[in-house]
Amino acid sequence: MENGRIARRAPYPWRVVIPVEDAADPRIADYVRLRDVDLRKSLEGGRGLFLAEGEKVIRRAVAAGHPVRSMLMTAKWLDRLADLTGGDTGDVTVYLVSDEVMEGITGFQVHRGALASMERRELPSVAEVLRGARHVVVLEDLVDHTNVGAIFRCAAALGVDAIVLSPRCADPLYRRSVKVSMGSVFSVPYARLKDWHDGLEELRDHGFRLLALTPAESAIPIEEALTGGRNALLLGSEGDGLSSRWLAEADQAVRIPMSREVDSLNVAAAAAIACYLLAAPGH
Ligand SMILES: C[S@@+](CC[C@H](N)C(=O)[O-])C[C@H]1O[C@@H](n2cnc3c(N)ncnc32)[C@H](O)[C@@H]1O
After folding, report:
1. How remote is the CA of residue 96 from the centroid of ligand 1, in Å?
2. Is residue 180 part of a domain?
3. How far is the CA of 133 from the centre of ligand 1 (A)?
4. Are 60 and 173 in the same domain?
5. Across-strand partners of 192?
6. Pocket test for ligand 1, best of 247, 267, 276, 277 (most atoms within 8 A of CB)
7. Total of domains in the chain
8. 184 and 80, same structural domain?
9. 3-state DSSP assignment of residue 112
């Protein structure tokens, strides 16, 4: 060990492993208080980073080309993730902690035992993600990161080509979204509208028919509205649903018929059904 570092020697010759015993160590500031949403938003936005949690998700983030800033893990993950520091990731600093210190830093027990702090990249423009796309999902002002992650996972599984977010929609790269998406936030292209009020015009300009998903009885059943061509499914926020502006802008309001005992579906459940129908043969 040199100055608290285990540097480039067997059994981990390819990287720098730094044992950390104090949860207040400033070197691991990227990982603090993971459940404090406000703190995390400003910290991650300010530093241009996001966190990937668990082996599978970290691997997908790396494969998608996100540079690794550092990793934080308990000892049992050192071997499992050893190969990750090759190739494009170059040399990665690994902060090695006990379960207790991990919990002290992050604020909870990280069951998957490994976190990576990754660099964000500039998002493509809306025009770029729409080019060549046929099935698109558009999310208006969702606030729940779990829902955003679940919708990305559905989109990846059910053949959606791209996702477009309203300017205020929750961040797909927030740790919870990334985790719930199982890394689908790295495989489904997405972009953020700059303008909420007139932003949907850009989709129409690209030839998309705008289908507004709403539980309202006045809407037609979604299966009657799906035809071939370019379709964009608009999904609204957890509380209020789609805004009156976006409902008015849509070409057609569509509903998933439900039992009368229920007011609405969770937005991710609605997305799963709608994406499945959209990708069905013939649509
Ligand atoms: C929890 S719901 C919002 C409920 C809100 N009170 C409303 O009336 O839209 C969130 C989103 O899920 C979608 N959704 C939920 N249930 C639906 C249904 N039965 N048919 C179509 N979309 C639905 C809509 O896009 C909605 O904006």
Report:
1. 44
2. yes
3. 24
4. no
5. 165
6. 267
7. 2
8. no
9. coil
Clarify whether residues 271 and 174 are in a common domain.
yes
5 pLDDT higher than 60: no
Question: How confident is the model at residue 227, as a pLDDT?
Answer: 83
Q: Residue range 210-219: average pLDDT? A: 97
**Considering the domain boundaries, does residue 1 fall inside one?**
no
Q: Which residues touch 68 (CB under 8 Å, ≥6 apart)?
A: 62, 84, 85, 89, 92, 116, 117, 118, 119
* Displacement of CA 216 from its chain's centroid (Å): 28
Range of the structural domain that residue 166 is part of? 126-279
CA distances (Å), 224 to each of 203, 276, 283, in order? 21, 14, 11
CA of 232 from ligand 1 middle (Å) equals 16
Helix axes 145-157, 267-279, angle to 10 degrees: 10
Q: Are 71 and 116 in contact (CB under 8 A)?
A: yes
- Using the 3D structure, point to which of 119, 140, 161 is the last residue of a domain: 119
